[in-house]
Amino acid sequence: MLFDDLDPTVTIASVLVPVAVPGAYTYKVPPGKTVVPGTIVKVPLGPREVIGAVWDIEPDAAINPDKLKSITHVYDETPPLDADLRRFVDWVANWTLGAPGMVVRMVLRSEEALEPEAPVPGVRKVEGAAPDRMTPARQRVLHTLEDGFSWTKSGLAHAAGVSASVIDGLIKQSVLEVVLMPASPPLPKPQLDYGKKPLTPAQEAAAGALAQSFDKGATVTLIDGVTGSGKTEVYFEAIAEALRRDKQALILLPEIALTEQFLRRFEQRFGVYPAEWHSEITPKKRARVWRGVASGDVRVVIGARSSLFLPFQNLGLIIVDEEHDGAFKQDDRVSYSARDMAVVRGHISKFPVVLASATPSIESRVNAELGRYGLIELPERASGAELPELRAIDMRLDGPEHGRWLAPGLVHAIKDAFAAGDQSLLFLNRRGYAPLTLCRTCGHRFQCPQCTAWLVEHRFQKRLVCHHCGHVEPVPSTCPSCQSKDTLVACGPGVERVAEEVADLFPQARTLVLSSDIAGGPERLKREMKIVEEGGADIVIGTQLVAKGHNFPKLKLVGVVDADLGLANGDPRAAEKTFQLLAQVTGRAGRVTGGGKGYLQSYSTDHPVIKALLSSDKNAFYQAEIDARRAAGLPPFGRLAAVIISGPDRGFAEGFARALVRAAPEDRAVTLLGPAEAALAMVRGRYRFRLLAMAPRQFDLQSYLRAWLANGPKPSKGLRVQVDIDPQQF
Ligand code: ADP
Ligand code: ZN
Ligand code: ZN
Hints:
seven-stranded parallel beta sheet, binds zinc ion, six-stranded parallel beta sheet, about 725 residues, binds adenosine-5'-diphosphate, alpha/beta, 31 strands, single chain, 21 helices
């Protein structure tokens, strides 16, 4: 490289690159360029070039500079990642045992954002010019332009309600001129008092407490409020407070792709739409949000868990809504809980974090009880509407006839609701037509060739689908095992099958199936959610998708088709998860107007979860769960990590897992369990074994795991070792 010869004092820098290596790589800094920790750069990595970030790690000066590659581009137009964000990246990597490069990769999610946006043609009014003849349409155009901004032609035509020819006519007369303008004009600012609702006294007190927390540095507050208690309105006030203090705010939601309704609610409160951030947005929009967040132009982001890694210029508040939701846990390459990492982010930058739920996680309840988190309880609905009246239907005594899934008592209730013009929701957390398909003659069952899972029949789409890997095959007309014709039978219900029964029972009703795999994707789902919201459906049949966040004002009756579904598996979190899901979904009934009813179809009506749902006292249930966790030393009373070993060869993967256990450092504080087959023993053709490490709460489990994995046997032959701190399923 030429400049080495000219400049003997070659400067070098450490760069985190988006690959799974433990540290940073050292590069030469091009002459005339300066980089600081956080500067975003492009560097060669093997045969390709990647985007990375200069990091606060001492570069390796021992490497011969002739061997070093040079940074190929410095993005000096983009602000460097600030110290708090860098500390956060390091913290997440350290906590999850993930590679820092893979964490920084989540920050650098938009390459387009680093390139300046090319200007686009627009029009502007020429000072002092006037048209030869004024028409109402021309008047509207000129009126729209009084704001002094440049507009795109189509944007102006739309805003003024005129055709493009009107604008062309004004350009011809030199009343308007064509200019180059920035592709994304400055964003309108949220208006703090726009659409503010008068709050109930309970909400007022809650909002006041949150406003005060801004002066207390890093705090976490749990809002534990029943469905419809007005938690959203309360945390909107916290957002207003953050904005008043010139801070940016972030709202994390579990199912962001479907939260059209939420965006509209925000708009009603603040007069502008917030920026969205999740996997479904277009690269162009993604780039704009990323840039706007970095420049401080974007004030509020509503996003999925990955928005925690946006380069906020001045973040001052994070809200985690539905904080109990499992969707906040990412089980990808970096396995992290967005709820827990939000708390860390607030701690680093010393701002308040608010967790909200009608059914908080055991972890957050315990933290609130121990005084680590502030607690705000909202036991009543904001509208004054009473909570739904819940009832169990004992399927052993009052179940439906053979081949039917809805008990007479529930059918009767739907009939009444339908007659009264009310909406009903039937909830079943099972996509497709039936969970299992088998041959009546020989008993053959359809299993996924890649996973230890049954194929699920999707009758609308006429195919068998694996819900774990996406494997699809047509439904055959003859049994592949005994060749009998037309002998396949569906066992058990899925939402499609319940929909079939509803269509049969209520042919006059407008029914709708809401399930994440309905053809048409997120756009269609959004439309259908809106139909339900506006009362355009009488009976809705839905999976867990409907349990989250959505407000269906016409909904009066919720029927849970199989309340035992989540309780059957051996996961110690099963009771908590089922309680949360069923409380959420039944809580949708009568949310605004009251008079809601919920029915739980169950074969185990005396199960503590069913009893807790029926009694209005959820505290007893929480207390029992908390006691059980404490007795077993499980989180949050103890530390837990899973190590998953997976590979294409079963015997080899299991052998490696055993060797790893033998190599574990001796430590009396740590209990190792396994290897055992993972809950899903095979996924996508990879066999999976799991080890569990348990330790007391004060124990530094990460250091233990790091030493163990560094000194233990090294995976080879396609084996993969993944660490999952605080696994969701254990
Ligand atoms: P949560 O988030 O606790 O489930 P929401 O904030 O969604 O509750 O409020 C439930 C319903 O009550 C919504 O329709 C909301 O518009 C309404 N609501 C909330 N607070 C008030 C209030 N202070 N006055 C009138 N309506 C309210
Ligand atoms: Zn057969
Ligand atoms: Zn599969």
